[in-house]
């Protein structure tokens, strides 16, 4: 290849890389004079954070999703599972401090605490209510996001009309113990000496190496669980980060850095979380969505907590064909449930 051709190819590769990294992210428009489709960065606390706001009628009820993880931001793939909700809600996704599009290479990493994220959430809820003229919003948390959700309710539920906990964290220490014992039983049943050795070396919770031990335990459960049909959220994240309109190449890089930082700063900090001790009564309707095969946040604990919790209205909903991601695995059922909840408000 001639030198000039090599230079041209190199220039094209560099140009393509620049476009991939820095092309403007956006969210597709929604038809209708009252529709809203915004990908916005707002100042929350001491840093900019990103919201995805979508709906066919901006006067409809607002529903705010608190993603799991910590660090598993969902703006990059949210539309895949939430487009059905846009008919009846203003759907808001928020990449939390240090996660996804809200990650900053220059952020104060010591500000990444659970208490700070709860304060951020409260500020965002107030922003949404004031901006769109609402008294209250519907709050949905998943996994880690359910810890945030219950902390918000415990502090002040005046801006929340209903709370939906999906894969609710109840008693972190007891949940880890149940998950560990289930993984051990599966390894024994399948005569997996390598898995047994890993579990025995880790020892029962609390783990010394929280991140790696938890991942090993979860991988054993995924490998041998009788249920094999939960969605592959990792694939959704990869595809969404690289290919969705809401994300560019730089966002994909930020996602990876944010996920790592969130794990380092936040995993293991919630070992004392115990709703049996902290929240025995709430003053708003609550709904718990539990996958029948969920051993990440064991559903047996969620059911036990539900039975003891005092609330003006409460419901426990089994998702019989799901593990830890019922909102995706049984998406139609979940979306219909949210509409029914909204109609009760």
UniProtKB/TrEMBL annotation:
What would be one Gene Ontology cellular-component term for the protein?
membrane
Keyword Zinc attached: no
Which InterPro entries is this protein grouped with? AB_hydrolase_1, AB_hydrolase_fold, AB_hydrolase_sf, Peptidase_S33
An example GO BP is: proteolysis
The alphabetical list of record keywords is: Hydrolase
The AB hydrolase-1 domain sits at 61-330
Which GO molecular function annotation, any one, does this entry have?
aminopeptidase activity
Checking Pfam families in the record gives:
Abhydrolase_1
Member of which family? Belongs to the peptidase S33 family.
Q: Indicate what this protein is called per its UniProt record.
A: Alpha/beta hydrolase
Species assigned in the record: Clostridium beijerinckii (Clostridium MP)
Which taxonomic lineage does the organism of this UniProt entry have?
Bacteria, Bacillati, Bacillota, Clostridia, Eubacteriales
């Amino acid at each position: 290849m001639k030198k000039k051709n090599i230079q041209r190819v190199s220039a094209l590769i560099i140009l393509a890389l620049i476009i991939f990294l820095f092309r403007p992210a956006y969210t597709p428009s929604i038809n209708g004079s009252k529709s809203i489709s915004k990908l916005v960065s707002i100042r929350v606390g001491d840093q900019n954070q990103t919201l995805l706001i979508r709906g066919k009628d901006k006067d409809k009820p607002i529903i705010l999703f608190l993603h799991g993880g910590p660090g598993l931001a969902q703006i990059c793939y949210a539309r895949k599972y939430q487009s059905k909700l846009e008919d009846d809600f203003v759907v808001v996704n928020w990449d939390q401090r240090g996660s996804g599009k809200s990650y900053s290479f220059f952020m104060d990493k010591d500000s990444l605490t659970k208490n700070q994220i709860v304060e951020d959430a409260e500020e965002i809820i107030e922003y949404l209510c004031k901006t769109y003229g609402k008294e209250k919003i519907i709050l949905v948390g998943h996994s880690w996001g359910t810890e945030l959700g219950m902390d918000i309710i415990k502090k002040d539920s005046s801006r929340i009309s209903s709370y939906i906990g999906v894969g609710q964290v109840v008693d972190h220490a007891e949940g880890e113990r149940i998950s560990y014992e289930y993984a051990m039983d599966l390894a024994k049943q399948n005569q997996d000496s390598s898995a047994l050795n890993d579990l025995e070396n880790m020892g029962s919770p609390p783990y010394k190496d929280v991140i790696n031990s938890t991942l090993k335990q979860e991988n054993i459960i995924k490998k041998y669980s009788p249920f094999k049909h939960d969605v592959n959220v990792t694939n959704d994240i990869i595809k969404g980060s690289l290919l969705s309109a809401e994300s560019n190449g730089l966002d994909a890089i930020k996602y990876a850095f944010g996920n790592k930082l969130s794990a380092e700063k936040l995993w293991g900090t919630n070992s004392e979380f115990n709703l049996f001790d902290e929240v025995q009564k709430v003053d708003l309707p609550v709904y718990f969505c539990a996958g029948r095969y969920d051993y990440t946040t064991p559903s047996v604990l969620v059911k036990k907590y539900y039975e003891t919790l005092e609330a003006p209205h409460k419901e426990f909903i089994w998702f019989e064909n799901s593990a830890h991601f019922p909102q995706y695995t049984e998406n139609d059922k979940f979306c219909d449930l949210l509409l029914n909840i909204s109609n009760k408000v």
